[in-house]
Amino acid sequence: MSTSFNVQIAVPFHYEVTFTSDVFNAENPALALALARREPNKCHRAFFVIDEGVARAWPRLSEQIQHYANQHVGTLELAGAPVVVPGGEQVKNDPRHIEALHLEIARRGLDRQSFAVIVGGGAVQDMAGFAAATAHRGVRVVRLPTTVLSQNDSGVGVKNGVNAFGLKNFVGTFAPPFAVLNDARFLETLDRRDRIAGIAEAVKVSLIRDAEFFDWLTANATRLRNLEPQATAVMVERSAELHLRHIESGGDPFELGSARPLDFGHWSAHKLESLTAHRLRHGEAVAIGLALDTLVSVEVGLLSASIAERVHGVLREIGLPTFHPELEAVDDAGALKVLDGLREFQEHLGGELTVTLLRGPGQAVDWHDMDPTLIARAIRTLKTGYGSSEPARALPSLVSGAAE
Q1: With contact defined as beta carbons under 8 Å apart, do 174 and 220 qualify?
Q2: How far is CA 79 from CA 179, 290, 367, in A?
Q3: pLDDT tens track of the chain, all 404 residues?
Q4: Would you give the end-to-end CA distance of the chain in angstroms?
Q5: How far apart, in whole angstroms, are the C-alpha atoms of residue 195 and residue 191?
Q6: Which among 32, 95, 112, 294 has the fewest CB atoms less than 10 Å away?
């Protein structure tokens, strides 16, 4: 005879995403308010992790953090000097970085009421966020994303993780941050390539969630390509808002089902990143993935060719790539290597293969049958420069294999 109990646990999560400028100016209360949100009369211990690229671009950053703490002494206590870690995808490929952060958290006597304040791009947010989430089963995290991509997409979400066994984000957790602070000033020191690459996620979320935003991106593509601050600020904030609204009201914030609509275009993007040894930026890979799945949507009869041409035109006008030679790479059996991305995508989620395709801007569709023949045909079409008078061109440094 057996006995069973039905247990249902509801755990609410709450965090704020604040858009600000010059967050470490002592007169800016945003960080202090974020730390004190739950316990306003307490002094909070915080451990800062800084992306190496950010530390180079802002050489006085550690000094500014110390000054900020001195001016908010009743709210913020620094748990030692900041730790600087490598930026970019490399930091997600080496588990020693996680171990090093675990060791620092232990040495500094941080507990579950302490904070890890992570200042950096998406890869550093992923790695350091995973380290914090797995120390004491969860040290509080405040994110300060410093790239376009992390401010408009990954930095405002609930996921973190690192790569393992050649698989993107194979090890990770769902761990909502305590707070997110998007400081527009950090975008000023990004190089042009990284700033443009981050816009791909804005195009993605507009296509699956908001036709009006896609119209805005179409009308402002040249301004975005020229890195105009006002257009960039609008793009970042609207994209972040759409990502947050999906997480909040999409019905599956921790991806328990088989669908992952926020990853439109990502099955091939993740594979392209590994095929290019991460010389291809994540945003660039996403742009190519969007271009590919837009064409697949045409091939299966969901989307009109005219709208697909418009999508490709916007990507090109912004300055994003729509093709890479590794899309045509084949294995020893002659199969396209990029198709392994479908299998990896399905294994990551479990259940039936579910890929997001398009019926139109703002009209996402769950699709379960990704025909390799149609994908191969879409890749051949991409190479011709779909909707353009010229063949598609990948970034020269990526074709040559030059390290970035």
Answers
A1: no
A2: 19, 43, 49
A3: 788 999 988 888 999 999 999 999 999 999 999 999 999 999 999 999 999 999 999 999 999 999 999 999 999 999 999 999 999 999 999 999 999 999 999 999 999 999 999 999 999 999 999 999 999 999 999 999 999 999 999 999 999 999 999 888 999 999 999 999 999 999 999 999 999 999 999 999 999 999 999 999 999 999 999 999 999 999 999 999 999 998 888 767 887 765 666 889 999 999 999 999 989 999 999 999 999 999 999 999 999 999 999 999 999 999 999 999 999 999 999 999 999 999 988 887 777 888 999 999 999 999 999 999 999 999 999 999 876 656 665 554 443 333 33
A4: 63
A5: 6
A6: 112
What count of other Cβ atoms lies within 10 Å of the Cβ of residue 45? 18
Pick the CATH number of 16-189 from 3.80.10.10, 3.10.180.10, 3.40.50.1970, 1.20.950.20: 3.40.50.1970
The answer to whether domain 16-189 and domain 246-400 are alike in fold is no
- Helix locations, 135-175, DSSP H: 148-152
CATH topology of domain 246-400: Dehydroquinate synthase-like, alpha domain (1.20.1090)
Strands 76-78 and 44-51: parallel
- Measured at the CA of 245, the angle between CA 129 and CA 162, to 5 degrees, comes to 25
Alpha helices for 163-228 (secondary structure H):
192-197, 199-209, 211-219, 221-225
CB count within 10 Å of CB 333 equals 5
Residue type, 291: A
- Residues 194 and 150: their CA atoms lie apart, in Å, by 11
CB of 236 closer than 8 Å to CB of 148: yes
In this structure, the dihedral spanned by the alpha carbons of residues 341, 344, 345 and 351, taken in order and rounded to 10 degrees, is 140
- pTM higher than the cut 0.70: yes
